[in-house]
Amino acid sequence: MTLLAIETSCDETSAAVIRDGAILSNLVSSQIRLHAEYGGVVPELATREHLRNWVPVAHAALDQGGVEAGTLEAVAATRGPGLPNALMIGCRAAQAMAFALDRPFVGVHHHEAHLYSPWISGDPPRAQFESLPPNVSLIVSGGHTILVHVVSELRHRVLGSTLDDAAGECFDKVGKLLGLPYPAGPELDRLGAEGNPRAHEFPRPLLKDPSDDFSFAGLKTSVRYFLEKHPHLAEDPARLRDLCASVQAAIVQTLVGKTMRAAQRIGVGCVTASGGVTSNRALRRELASACAGAGLELRLAEPALCTDNAGMIGILAERKLLRGEGETSVDAEIDPSWALA
Ligand code: KG4
Ligand code: ZN
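Above: the input entities. Below: the structure tokens describing the complete assembly.
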């Protein structure tokens, strides 16, 4: 099956062509530089950029995939969750294409696409869902931190999620306090790699709590108090690196500790992780060492598939259609606060 997928849930306009489980093209037009000036995503600007970009991005994806629009057998888009007006552009565009081509439309859940993205790998990237064992999966992005028990392909239940800030949000907000450019996650990763993670002790929120929920707002606040007591610390490069490493260690240890505990409690043999924060090198390393120690298999989303992209949306849409699920009405509404079940 050949399909086109569009992703516009936040600040990336992306389009991908999928054929028989492989990603033939996956183009991402990032708006990061535009929003950086404002220190975060400005919804009106995101909307304007998606409107301007979706046609050229979709054209380029079809070109690179060597596919004519008229031969598409389905069209997919992210239907939620995300910024309402941003979602509306990609979703309506895909619905209109499906309507004109008289082909099925699939409205995809953004987090469900992240959830299964660790099972896409190779060159070209290909869905490898046949080998999917029961697993506990950590989805860590800018807006969400979710722990999920995946029972089998497309069968999963949410174990817990963040009660306030997401892990990526914590990286971004702490980075802002330190004067780092938005989004601060990659910069904190870079600086933290050269610092001492034991230089300062920050809270590991809810790490000892028996629930599978997360909370990162308190950690950000404790960094703020710490900086009030040490106002010039960030001006010293060596001390800044130690602070970044220490904050990163608190976030990473909390994520890894809670994921491993859930995996062991449920008794699965595999752990997976996806979403933008999964690009973090300390998180990848700590998950690898914890899983090796516990004898668990680990599947991490490939770095190119960690951040938002239409490839993961299209792969999930195709799997759903092949199972006779997922076809969505061409006039279905977007769902900006669609919760993962
Ligand atoms: O999944 P994503 O691209 O977008 C959302 O759906 O939110 O995730 C973006 C988030 C941002 O908060 C960004 O700072 C964080 O992922 N991020 C990182 C790294 N790369 C991206 N956080 C820590 N270390 C990184 N290397
Ligand atoms: Zn995302």
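Note for the figure: The longest helix spans residues 237-266.
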